[in-house]
Design goal:
The complex is a heterodimer of chains A (410) and B (680). Chain A is α/β, with parallel strands linked by helices. Chain A folds into two domains: 200 residues, Aspartate Aminotransferase, domain 2 (3-Layer(aba) Sandwich); 120 residues. The radius of gyration of chain A is 22 Å and the shape is globular. In chain B, the strands form seven sheets. Chain B has a seven-stranded mixed beta sheet, sandwiched between helices. A six-stranded mixed beta sheet of chain B has the order 24-26-25-28-23-27. The longest helix of chain B has 14 residues. In chain B, 30% of the residues lie in helices and 19% in strands. Chain B has 680 residues and is of the alpha/beta class. Chain B has four domains: 54 residues, ADC-like domains (N-terminal domain of TfIIb, Single Sheet), CATH 2.20.25; 255 residues, Rossmann fold, CATH 3.40.50.740; 190 residues, Dimethylsulfoxide Reductase, domain 2 (3-Layer(aba) Sandwich); 112 residues, Barwin-like endoglucanases (Beta Barrel), CATH 2.40.40.20. Chain B is globular and about 70 Å long. Classes of the chains: A alpha/beta (410), B alpha/beta (680). At the A-B interface, strand 3, helix 3 and helix 5 of A face strand 1, strand 2, strand 3, helix 1 and helix 7 of B.
């Protein structure tokens, strides 16, 4: 079997210095553009050089790729929406996209529904140990770390700690659990996410397993991944060497730990729900959902939603217009449309001005459905969504009992 | 090849000042996204924000200046329109011109219109919708704490342990303020809302609803203060160190009888007690109020009682506390800051000889007006020339029938706007303005937050930014040297030179999401989240208690007009709807007015849900459909004021005297009559 695990870095000292872990992703993206293997790169850059103000950027000039160099943990952007909504699903352009695992999974779900053209996308997966909302992060740096947010030069999550590097080169670290006690939590969806390495993308890149070397550990996950990396290596844009067993083991160990933590958190959440009676669960969800002001933030942010003529719009005659909160069917329609394929990206919950824990609702339901249908959203492009293939037998299964109470909320 | 750009800017639909990103595809607005890095909205917007500026592409945009000839508006060149205006204005007597401006304009636009009024027309006749929203708040808060601004910072409301919401339906009208209240509540804060209706805010965010009789809020708060004193919950240390006038207040409260207050307000003493104790025992108690109490003849007194109660309990000078007036307009603080009102030069510098002299030397101009100008409705009634920039009084002013008659007699009405508004239809000259997505500038929202508005696209047709129109007109009137601005930033540099609160703010510093909160005295200053931490804004630095008895509304219901009308806003529209009614997704939600009546009144009058009704006041009538709901009490009718087919403000009218001259929008006596199905 062809080797698919490498350590890679840019031989260019400038790029090395700009990127995290040897600048491999930056060099690869630049090479892909230079050699016209893609028409554009969609990645994330810092606005005003702020680590709390990330903005998606579509790049066609190879000279500008370096603007996107470096990892960011406070940038939970919705890369999928840019392609789906603003670039016609990449139907007529080839784009290399950097993506978190949830982005990559959403691309796979959309590809199944013919809303993006998978052949035109080069998915550069980035390992992800979770993200913070930028506003939470900024406050955390100021108040918990006691530093001026403008002085932040970098950050990483490792071994249960958040480690920050300041512009003067010094570092500071805090226990993640201690930060949670002070009210600074990662996005809730990230905590339960067990997709840390995006193997559904064409390549999965990260620092786990680089064992201190200034290099990116890359797992090649598709023929397209091989094609792009081979080109980069041949062009001298990347130096690649096969990962050693030691490096592979280390990476595996880190991934396993992270995944187990996430699974434990997810289990804990679901079990908390299950302890409560149906009435209590209903009360919990109706209590949250009744705050809805019908901003459509959840729908508009959802990377899976795509109908041009949405059932939720007043002119469809299903949900009466002008009501605050909208009829409860507003929520139920969204739930029934999305739950089977929710990739737990958290965008709906981020966008909700009324603080409704929407991703919790979708993902809890999704985890039940995943068992019933043996379906994992956003993993295998050849596995069709369950609601398109539901069988008579499956229809006779009792309704999943998903709604429950989490005592920490009201 | 496609190009995508994200332009960060600020939503124009309410004073919250939420960040948005305009997504440009190949140079055109393709979408609007919430700005994730923004400290107020935190990546969340309401439906108005999510559709902000999509009206920029509306086919109804004004694209050229128009002059009315033979009763019809005809397109003309800028030179033709401005030459004509220049000639007319130069013939006008001093103080014959009135300038009505709007919180939809940028600080730069507003600064220039007041400079134009004062230098070119030598008048302080300048006013805006702050007259209709907070003309009661400003004198009330000046007399107590020395400044009519929001003393805390919007994000800090999350830190409150008790939030008292007075006459504001924040979940619909300030959703991102409601978000802060939700966070506070999740952390255990008690939310008390005084509102005559069971609004979504009451139903979904409130622990204790005080369904108060309209306009009696001052009586309620006085009662609460009496309870706080009786229970020994006053903060004596704070009172002693930071206030004066406590004995007079106490003497007044001692004369009050809670049972009498119960009768006036309709609030049971037990509920009053619950509210008073919750408020007084909170570590950080935050009061938010808006039009529901401000738009009353007795609004000044009510707001004084709110300040009194916050002072009595030491709830000033710390994050998440204070008495916070909510600003309707996105530039609802800026249109006071810029001196576009009859009594202040920029920076709240009182109109008098000394101030006029100081500005004369700063502007290198002579003979600046030193006497207060006319207020909004005085200008509508008395000025033969009106220059209206961004405002839509033909929907927002009280007694619209009277306003229309007054407009018929004007020598010249100039309206500068982005759409042919109901007011523009009556104008002699209409000047096509650029919208907020088409110009650079700044705006200052509810919590004194100065933020950058960014130009994303070119103005439609021949439209120009308001400030450029004013510069060109000034040049034609021979005052070009005072208006030689090439960019909005140059204007801002002059603003910060003469507005002390803005001195340390620069365009460069405003690049960061969330901007800077004034006061910001120098460029090294981070801005001010919480005001009055050490001193109040009064001359002696102390807060002054004001004994403020409840004042009855001006037009009580009687046998002829037995119902009380109250007006308000909905989740899906903003003010007169000039922007939101031209936004597809908002208009799809709701495009028509309705009159809320109680089930009891439905039974008494035979008016069923959905039936057509006529509402009639002493000033006029409107037709709409009834919406029968238990959310309103018998004897009261609610009508939104967003819709031109049913102009709520045809019905409103009576106004307070000085100092506020506030129209009592929230209390008019009306009749309600069913329209029989044969159309009679």
């Amino acid at each position: 079997m062809e080797n698919n695990l490498y350590l890679a870095w840019s031989p260019d000292a400038t790029i090395q210095g700009m990127g995290s872990s040897g600048g491999a992703v930056t060099a690869l993206l630049r090479c892909a553009l230079e050699n016209q293997m893609v028409d554009a790169v969609l990645a994330v850059k810092k606005r005003n050089n702020s680590r709390f103000d990330a903005v998606p950027t579509l790049i066609t000039d190879p000279e500008l790729v370096h603007e996107t160099a470096g990892a960011m943990h406070f940038a939970p952007l919705n890369m999928v929406k840019i392609i789906k909504e603003y670039l016609d699903g990449a139907m007529d352009m080839r784009v290399a996209v950097t993506c978190k695992p949830c982005d990559a999974r959403a691309f796979i779900e959309l590809a199944k529904r013919n809303q993006v053209r998978r052949e035109n996308l080069f998915l550069v997966g980035l390992n992800c140990s979770g993200t913070y909302l930028p506003t939470v992060a900024e406050q955390m740096i100021r108040e918990a770390f006691g530093e001026n947010p403008q002085d932040l030069a970098g950050e990483e999550v490792d071994e249960g700690k958040l480690i920050i590097t300041l512009k003067d080169g010094s570092t500071k670290e805090k226990d993640l659990e201690e930060l949670v006690r002070q009210g600074y939590e990662m996005r809730e969806n990230c905590l339960r996410c067990s997709y840390k390495v995006p193997r559904m993308a064409d390549i999965a890149c990260g620092k786990w397993g680089n064992n201190g070397k200034s290099a990116t550990f890359i797992e090649i996950c598709s023929p397209k991944g091989h094609e792009f990396l081979d080109a980069a290596a041949q062009n001298g844009a990347l130096v690649m060497e096969p990962a050693t067993n030691e490096q592979i083991e280390k990476r595996k160990q880190k991934e396993t730990e992270a995944v187990e933590n996430a699974q434990a958190r997810e289990k804990q959440e679901i079990e908390a729900f299950k302890r409560y009676s149906s009435e209590e669960r209903l009360k919990y969800w109706l209590g949250h959902l009744s705050r809805c002001i019908k901003c459509f933030g959840c729908r508009d942010a959802c990377p899976i939603c795509f109908c041009k003529e949405c059932y939720l719009e007043p002119y469809r005659g299903c949900i009466p217009g002008g009501e605050t909160p909208p009829d409860i069917m507003f929520q139920l329609i969204r739930l029934s449309h999305v739950a089977d394929s929710c990739v737990n990206c958290g965008q709906c919950q981020d966008a909700c001005p009324m603080e409704i824990p929407l991703t919790r609702l979708y993902s809890v339901l999704n985890s039940e459905l995943a068992d019933i249908f043996d379906y994992k959203p956003g993993v295998d492009i050849d596995q069709p969504p369950p609601l398109t293939t539901v069988t008579e037998q499956e229809l006779s299964i009792d309704a999943p009992d998903i709604i429950g109470e989490n005592s920490s909320d009201r | 090849m496609n190009a995508i750009e994200h332009i960060p800017t600020v939503c124009p639909c309410c004073g919250c000042g939420c960040g948005i990103e305009l997504v440009l595809k190949n140079g055109e607005i393709a979408g609007v996204e919430p700005l994730k890095s923004h400290p107020v909205c935190k990546g969340k917007n309401c439906l108005k924000g999510k559709n902000a500026y999509l009206y920029a592409n509306s086919e109804e945009r004004l694209t050229t200046p128009l002059i009315k000839k033979n009763g019809k508006h005809e397109a003309c060149s800028w030179d033709e329109a401005l030459d004509w205006i220049a000639q007319k204005l130069s013939e006008a007597d001093r103080d014959a011109v009135g300038f009505i401006n709007s919180g939809k304009c940028t600080n730069e636009d507003l600064y220039l219109i007041q400079k134009f009024a004062r230098i070119v027309c030598k008048t302080n006749n300048l006013d805006n919708a702050s007259r209709f929203c907070h003309s009661t708040s400003v004198p009330a808060l000046l007399s107590t704490v020395g400044a009519g601004v929001m003393p805390t910072s919007t994000p800090s409301i999350e830190k409150a342990d008790c939030v008292l919401i007075m006459g504001a339906n924040i979940q619909e009208t300030y959703p991102l303020l409601a978000q802060k209240v939700i966070i506070a509540r999740t952390k255990g804060a008690k939310i008390i809302t005084a509102d005559l209706r069971r609004t979504p805010t009451v139903k979904n965010l409130t622990d204790l609803h005080l369904q108060i009789h309209p306009g009696t809020d001052a009586a309620l708060i006085n009662g609460m203060m009496k309870i706080i004193l009786d229970q020994g919950l006053a903060n004596t240390d704070f009172i002693e160190k930071r206030t004066s006038g406590f004995d007079e207040l106490k003497a007044y409260l001692d004369t009050l009888d809670l049972q009498e207050i119960e009768k006036i307000t309709g609030i049971k003493t037990e509920q009053m007690k619950d509210a008073a104790l919750s408020y007084a025992s909170a570590h950080n108690a935050c009061i938010m109020f808006n039009a529901g109490i401000a738009q009353h003849a007795g609004g000044v007194e009510t707001i004084q009682t709110l300040a009194d109660m916050a002072l009595l309990t030491g709830n000033y000078g710390k994050p998440g506390s204070g008495v916070n007036p909510l600003r309707g307009h996105s530039n609802g603080e800026g249109f006071g800051d810029m001196g576009t009102v009859p009594v202040f030069y920029p920076g709240f510098q009182k109109v008098n000889e000394e101030t006029a002299g100081r500005f004369a030397s700063m502007w290198d101009a002579a003979d600046l007006p030193a006497k207060p100008g006319l207020t909004y409705m005085e200008m509508v009634e008395k000025c033969p020339f009106l220059y209206i920039m961004g405002a839509n009084p033909a929907m927002s002013a009280p007694d619209i029938n009277a306003l229309r008659k007054a407009f018929e007699k004007k020598e010249l009405v100039i309206v500068q706007d982005i759409f042919m508004t109901e007011t523009a239809q009556m104008a002699d000259v209409v000047l096509a303005g650029a919208c907020g997505a088409e110009k650079d500038g700044t705006q200052t929202g509810v919590d004194r937050r100065v933020q950058r508005l960014r130009k994303a696209i070119a103005p439609v047709g021949d439209a120009l930014p308001d400030w450029q129109i004013l510069c060109r007109l000034a040049e034609k009137m021979g005052a070009g040297e005072h208006f030689a601005f090439k960019t909005s930033e140059e204007i801002f540099e002059e603003i910060r030179n003469c507005v002390p609160q803005y001195r340390g703010i620069t365009y460069e510093r405003l690049e960061q999401a969330g901007g800077i909160q004034w006061p910001c005295p120098d460029e090294g200053h981070p801005g001010t989240e919480t005001m009055f931490v050490e001193k109040f804004g009064t001359p002696d630095g102390l807060a002054h208690f004001q004994a403020a008895p409840y004042k009855a509304p001006l037009e009580p219901p009687d046998d002829a007009y037995p119902y009380i009308l109250t007006t308000g806003r909905l989740n899906f529209h903003f003010h007169t709807g000039s922007m939101t009614r031209r936004t597809e997704r908002l208009q799809n939600e709701i495009s028509e007015a309705f009159a809320e009546i109680s089930p009891q009144d439905s039974e008494n009058t035979g008016i069923a849900d959905g039936e057509e009704v006529i509402l009639r006041s002493r000033r006029g009538e409107v037709k709409t459909r009834a919406r029968v709901t238990p959310d309103i009490k018998a004897g009261q009718v609610f009508l939104p004021w967003h819709f031109p087919q049913c102009l709520a403000n045809i019905l409103t009218g009576p106004s307070a005297g000085p100092p506020s001259r506030m129209p009592e929008f929230k209390f008019s006596a009306i009749q309600i009559e069913k329209v029989e199905s044969d159309g009679k």
